[in-house]
Amino acid sequence: MAQQGFPISTEMQERSETDGKTYTVQYFERAVFELHPETQPPHDVLLSLLGVFEYTRKYGEQGAPDQRANSDSPLLFKETGKTLGGKFRRYWEVHGGLPQQGFPISDEFQERSELDGKTYTVQYFQRAVFELHPESTGTEHEVLLSHLGRFQYDRRYKSGAAVPTATVGTVGVPANATRWLREHAVPLNTTEPNDDFSDLMHLKQFIGSARIVSLGEATHGGREFFTMKHRLLRFLVKEMGFTLFGMEEGWAESLSASDYVEEGKGSAEEAVNNFLAWPWQTQEVIDMLRWMRGYNEGRGSAPEISFQGFDMQEPGGAMSVVIAYLQRVDAPAGERAAARYRCLGSLFDYPSMPQEAKAQCRAGLQQVHDELAAHRGPYEAASSAQAFTQAQFAARIVLQAEELFSKSDNYQVRDRYMAENLAWLLEQRGPDAKAVVWGHNGHVGTAQYAGHEYPSMGMHLRQKYGDAMRVIGFEFNGGSFNATSGRLGVNTVAAAPEGSYGQYFHSADIPLFFLDLRGIRRGSDATDWLVGPRRIWDIGHRFYPADPLLATAEVSLPQTFDGVIFVDMITPTTLRLRR
Questions:
Q1: Quick one: CA dihedral 91, 543, 548, 492, positive or negative?
Q2: CA distance linking residue 551 with residue 537, whole number of Å
Q3: For the segment 53-103, what is each residue's pLDDT rounded down to a tens digit?
Q4: Which residue of 90, 233, 340, 435 could cross-link 364, Cys pair, CB 3.0 to 4.6 Å?
């Protein structure tokens, strides 16, 4: 997988553009396999001469400029006059050598990738292009093959030409499972936010009297997930009376967004700039905040919608809230709190601090919390009940963050406290309040992912709210999204892995749909296949292009979500990062 990438076609008959012969071929992201029955194994399957074709297409007979022969253990090929050395030579020798990769037809040079826009050191061979990835130095992914298979496939078959007839059927998805999906999936009209809810009205029965509707995402960087969740927010507020929007963002860092949505203070851009996490610093979130503010301004007698973050990964903002409040109502207490909070000044150093120092720090943070609670009466009199409650919650966030950074199982701590915080925020708004929750699939889901041996936020919330919560996961097949892979930028996957839920949903040939997963049990070939477990995309802040399977998780979809929204192809969010 790491060498050739995902398969992007089935086997098919194709006439070669380099020698004019017809071969059985299969396209992969980084190569095209050709079957040569006239030769003996292991050379009966070879890579197509894509390197020759691509090099000629780009550089013609004169070749690429500014080439440099590698002087590290150089091997000169008289057949082509080119030199192979260093890391490229070691990779060539380990991965098939001359029979698989062919002769080098260039020396090393710098080339800008047509896929991600980055510049790499490359070397062309008859059957491949080697790319050097210094961000993966010391790993098996330091040298990778360029995405020649994807380029060639798109050039030949995405421009209107017919794809040749496959020699085998759709790989990995039983035909009866696809038929079942087509019968049960509910097509949706668009992911774009609007007030035409005609294709969403069926969700009223699905949601019923639930107080919480959690909306997941398979990647933090996909535009269509963000806009679809904005669209669902509009529906849930206008048609079903939801009043709270909770986001996987720091509580204190979301206060400016809350002030903007509820009171019109500041702007949506300023609110987004205050978020800790880059995934939410996007035009799509700005547009959603503007809609929320506009709704509150014109809501008439309808309930107000509020915005709250429920995460607790960084205590700085919460500490500032506590200190500022105490300085207003009890200046000496404010000075004591600032001194006691100083031990959390460097979170990166905190985990390695001696246990005694951490225990002393923790005791000081607890003192701030307890002294605040002990003075509730006079502090409320000097401010307001709302201001006191906010300060006390901020002090609790500080304690949560300290526990997060003092323990090795910090993901378990984080999900537990995100659930606790969301529940507290909801209950503060009374028994009739209803919340829309925005978070990653892995947080909102109600079953453990394989390899994630801790209860998720969704599992904690399910235990508390039971059937009064609905969880909608999001999945996709292929496309582009923002993530960090060395640095933050656009990453692309051609298609979901074979046998995955993404491939299964793609097989229905419905580009956007909702599927109710409740009540699906084993008992037929189709439902057995759906129950899984199978892989889904699981892309957070980071993505590893060298091994896309690292960005998947194995789950049983019906055990993890009440419903799922599938978007066949996604595009990147529009980043609006703080300057």
A1: negative
A2: 6
A3: 888 888 887 889 999 999 999 999 988 899 999 999 999 988 888 877 889
A4: 340
